[in-house]
């Protein structure tokens, strides 16, 4: 399968491309950026794995060339946060970048699965959808916001409070909602390794807050040099890997991802009823299939405190989604 990375020379783009070059399901890897993508491609092409790698710049129809034949397109293009910024502060610049890249995908690779990493994810995913609608090629089953880093953080941080870091690779905690602050809702009550009652509620509240605001921790530590790149590349490669396996026919792969709820009309309607709100997009545990979204799972049984977190998340999500939708509708 041909995987394409748009923004491939960046902090996420480079390690993500490295990990994709190592994925045996990737037979072709297309890299695109406004700088340095051909150099990154030549570097990766020396790695002894079968995937053929090519890199393009915007000149000479580079976007069209890289997207030709793409099965999966991953978008980490755009600016990252600096201390003091919210993800929404990135909208001003990243919305236009994502809109223009989505236009390229809609015209050259309209059947590709599109995986959006660029922030603010809660708004950039609707932007891609609206661009695709304008071109008459929108299929909600093929559009995903990548929220895997929240899931990865949940496994890491919860294994730490359980006092056993070796659990980090096996413990799974669904994280639902969206990808920014209070819209990130970890469902610790559904942890595959139950949280013992000996762990205090204040420790649990602290870990929930750490999962919701984990991005800030990295932005602060990098002190102006950007946000999560390596952990995001790890998370992104994990999600791309799942999408590729499902596209290849493997069944039963479930991952939380931010999708348009019409991608599975029945599952989406049930989820909206559970949420008690007309929210168009939501990160829910999604079963992946050959066509993309196969089934949107509901929230399942959640605790009263998790219900409260959802109630806080939904209004902010709706505002973020609307911002992305109206951006594409507005005159340039
Ligand atoms: P970065 O600045 O290191 O890299 C971004 C790359 O995008 C650069 O190489 C830049 O040249 C390229 N780019 C800019 N405009 C482009 C265009 N029009 N076409 C193609 N490439 C273009 O930033 P980063 O640290 O890699 O972060 C990228 C984005 O990912 C940011 O918006 C960040 O907030 C987001 N992010 C999301 C998550 C998530 O969980 N979804 C996690 C971390 C970061
Ligand atoms: C993250 O969660 O680390 C990313 O969304 C980057 C950020 O801005 O925090």
Secondary structure elements and their pairing?
Blueprint: E1 2-6, H1 13-21, E2 28-32, H2 37-45, E3 52-56, H3 62-67, E4 72-75, H4 91-108, E5 113-116, H5 121-134, E6 143-145, H6 148-161, E7 175-177, E8 184-186, H7 201-212, H8 214-222, H9 230-247, E9 253-260, H10 265-275, E10 281-289, E11 292-296, H11 304-329
Parallel strand pairs: 1-2, 1-4, 2-3, 4-5, 5-6
Antiparallel strand pairs: 7-8, 9-10, 10-11
Helix pairs in contact: 1-9, 4-5, 5-11, 6-7, 6-9
This protein binds nicotinamide-adenine-dinucleotide and (2S)-2-hydroxybutanedioic acid.
Describe the structure.
- This protein has about 325 residues and is an alpha/beta fold.
- The chain is built from 11 helices and 11 strands.
- Strands 3-2-1-4-5-6 form a 6-stranded parallel sheet, with helices on both faces. It has a 3-stranded antiparallel sheet with strand order 9-10-11.
- A hairpin with a 2-residue loop joins strand 10 and strand 11 (about 290-295).
- The site of (2S)-2-hydroxybutanedioic acid has 10 residues, from helix 8.
């Amino acid at each position: 399968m041909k995987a394409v990375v748009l923004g491939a020379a960046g902090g996420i783009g480079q390690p993500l491309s490295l990990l994709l070059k190592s994925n045996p399901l990737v037979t072709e890897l297309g890299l695109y950026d406004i700088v340095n993508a051909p150099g990154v491609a030549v570097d990766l092409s020396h790695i002894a794995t079968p995937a053929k790698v090519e890199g393009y710049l915007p000149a000479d129809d580079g976007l069209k060339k890289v997207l030709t034949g793409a099965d999966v397109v991953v978008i980490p293009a755009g600016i990252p946060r600096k201390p003091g910024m919210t993800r929404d502060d990135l909208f001003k610049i990243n919305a236009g970048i994502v809109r223009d890249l989505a236009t390229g995908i809609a015209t050259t690779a309209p059947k590709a699965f599109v995986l959006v990493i660029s922030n603010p994810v809660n708004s950039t995913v609707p932007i891609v959808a609206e661009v695709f609608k304008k071109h008459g090629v929108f299929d909600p089953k093929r559009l995903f916001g990548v929220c895997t880093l929240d899931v990865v953080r949940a496994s890491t941080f919860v294994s730490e409070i359980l006092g056993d870091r070796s659990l980090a690779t096996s413990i799974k905690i669904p994280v639902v909602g969206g990808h920014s602050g209070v819209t990130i809702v970890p469902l610790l009550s559904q942890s595959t390794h139950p949280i013992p009652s000996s762990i205090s509620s204040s420790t649990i509240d602290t870990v929930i807050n750490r999962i919701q605001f984990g991005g800030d921790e990295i932005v602060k530590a990098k002190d102006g040099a950007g946000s999560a790149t390596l952990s995001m590349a790890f998370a992104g490669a994990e999600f791309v890997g799942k999408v590729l396996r499902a596209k290849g026919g493997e069944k039963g792969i479930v991952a939380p991802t931010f999708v348009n709820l019409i991608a599975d009309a029945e599952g989406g309607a049930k989820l909206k009823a559970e949420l008690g709100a007309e929210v168009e997009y939501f990160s829910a545990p999604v079963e992946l299939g050959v066509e993309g979204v196969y089934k949107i799972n509901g929230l399942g049984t959640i605790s009263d405190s998790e219900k409260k977190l959802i109630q806080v998340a939904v209004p902010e999500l709706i505002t973020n989604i609307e911002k992305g939708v109206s951006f594409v509708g507005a005159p340039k």
